[in-house]
Automatic annotation (TrEMBL):
A molecular-function term among this protein's GO annotations: phosphatidate phosphatase activity
InterPro entries recorded: HAD-like_sf, LIPIN, LNS2, LNS2/PITP
Record Pfam families: LNS2
Origin species: Sesamum angustifolium
Protein name, UniProt field: Phosphatidate phosphatase PAH2
Domain LNS2/PITP residues, every copy: 91-247
């Protein structure tokens, strides 16, 4: 596969980087034909540090466009986003179905027929968290084929003039049926989520955890967040009534009531967590065990 850096200032999409690919590339090594040595780039889902550096990414969101050609379809384009964050970023993770939407199944169906099925107050809460300096990461076990519709749904949510803040939408690279089998039959969406979050965590310094809090709607979401080091007091589970459960106890009734506490629970990056809202004083969670 041939890949070339074409344009960093695309007129089609601002702040864009384009790649060209031919459909005849082979995986890895060198292709020797007619006495000539043609270098081939290995197909991979993970770019190297050198490849990322060559993109000259800017802070925040960058758009990349993959351009390829096939004999049947001709020239095709696929776009994606690369987010560049500081090493000391604090990341708040949110599940999508049942967390931003009001239910798992209808949350996928209703937006397709033009109905708003989002949780009341979620845009205001997440916008306030973003304004305090945190980065939002949207994580879903949906299949990669649903990525376009998922992104369009998320960033078209409007609630009293507020929209969801921009952030990466991380989706399973598997196809539709493997994703459904894992989530519906095996009931193990956490397998993908934990592996994905561990990969993201490994990008940051080993002596700090970039994940600050997590929102979900299932026990598997709580399990995933605990596995990557998010404390129990910062894991918010949304039950079917739209109530927020922390440590298996309903403490706030909705996203709207949590929004009133946002500056205490998600203090600005220049300040520290208020003692009134730490894990012990507010959530009554026991302090972590320390080996002596």
């Amino acid at each position: 596969m041939k890949v070339s850096h074409v344009d960093t200032n695309s007129s089609e999409i601002p702040n864009a980087v384009k790649f060209l690919s031919d459909s005849s590339g082979l995986e890895g090594g060198k292709d020797v034909t007619n006495g000539k040595v043609n270098k081939k780039i290995v197909r991979t889902l993970t770019p190297t540090s050198e490849q990322l550096a060559s993109l000259k990414l800017k802070d925040g969101k960058n758009i990349v466009i993959f351009t390829f050609s096939t004999a049947m379809l001709g020239k095709q384009q696929v776009d994606a986003r690369i987010f560049l964050w500081r090493w000391d970023a604090r990341i708040v993770i949110s599940d999508v179905d049942g967390t931003i939407t009001r239910s798992d199944l209808l949350g996928q169906v209703m937006p397709l027929v033009g109905m708003d099925w989002s949780q009341s107050g979620v845009a205001h809460l997440f916008s306030a968290i973003k304004e305090n300096g945190y980065q939002l990461l949207f994580l879903s076990a949906r299949a990669i084929s649903q990525s376009f519709h998922t992104r369009r749904f998320l960033f078209n949510i409007k609630q009293d003039g507020k929209a969801l803040p921009d952030g990466p939408v991380v989706i399973s690279p598997d196809g539709l049926f493997p994703s459904l089998f894992r989530e519906v039959v095996r009931r193990a969406p956490h397998e993908f989520k934990i592996a994905c979050l561990e990969d993201i965590k490994a990008l940051f310094p080993a002596d700090r955890n970039p994940f600050y809090a997590g929102f979900g709607n299932r026990d598997t979401d709580e399990f995933s967040y605990l596995k990557v080091g998010i404390p129990k007091g910062k894991i918010f589970i949304i039950n079917p009534k739209g109530e927020i459960v922390v440590n298996r106890r309903v403490d706030t009734k909705s996203y709207l009531s949590l929004h009133a506490l946002v500056h205490g629970m998600f203090p600005t990056m220049l300040s520290s967590e208020q003692e009134d809202f730490n894990s012990w004083n507010y959530w009554k969670l026991p302090p972590p065990a320390i080996d002596v």
